[in-house]
Amino acid sequence: MTFLPLKQVLKKSTYSGAIEMRYQIYNLTWRGIEIEARYCANNYNIIAHLEIEAINPPRARLPVTETGYRSHFHQMGTIEREHDGDVVACVNHWLDNEAKSKVWQQYHTDTRQGSLF
Asked: Which pTM value belongs to this model?
């Protein structure tokens, strides 16, 4: 199932000869954390840009970032090729994959049990 963007925003670069960049904005929930994903498929005609931010709870830790925010540049066409253009599926896949790491598993265990130290 492909999610349509919640909205699209237009950012103009401050550089001379500015190129318009269109960001698609998606909301999703991953394991109880509300996330906003912002995606620009064509950033400066050379690269794609994906931003992920935990919205509720604000800046909650995620498997891809301790701060609740991640900016990720990647080759244009990657999400379109690997996830049929489905940004939400891409973000879910990335988070699920990184949640398998020992670091995340330990963090998850510690926060569930609480820690005295």
From this structure: 0.80
